[in-house]
Specification:
Order of helices and strands: HEEH
Helix content: over 70%
Distance between the termini: 24 Å
Radius of gyration: 17 Å
Structural class: alpha+beta
Strand content: 15-25%
Strand order of the largest sheet: 1-2
Number of helices: 2
Length: about 70
């Protein structure tokens, strides 16, 4: 089960995300707070996915540090 959680599940999620990004190629307008950006959907989804990966990496790294500090 540990191998499933650490390798296969993330791999499946990445493949699903790539398929989702590739299928959404229209030009859209995104509004966030006072910003309005017009761009391709796939580019916006890619940026969001990368932000999520970075956030997950940072949170995972901090969790590993806390576990190591506890002993």
């Amino acid at each position: 089960m540990d191998l499933l959680k650490r390798f296969w599940l993330p791999l499946i999620l990445v493949v699903v995300a790539i398929i989702f990004i590739v299928q959404n190629r229209e030009k859209v307008s995104v509004n966030f707070l006072f910003l309005s950006i017009s761009s391709w959907q796939w580019l916006i989804y890619t940026i969001i996915a990368l932000c999520g990966l970075i956030a997950g990496w940072i949170l995972g790294r901090n969790s590993a540090k806390r576990k190591a500090a506890k002993g």
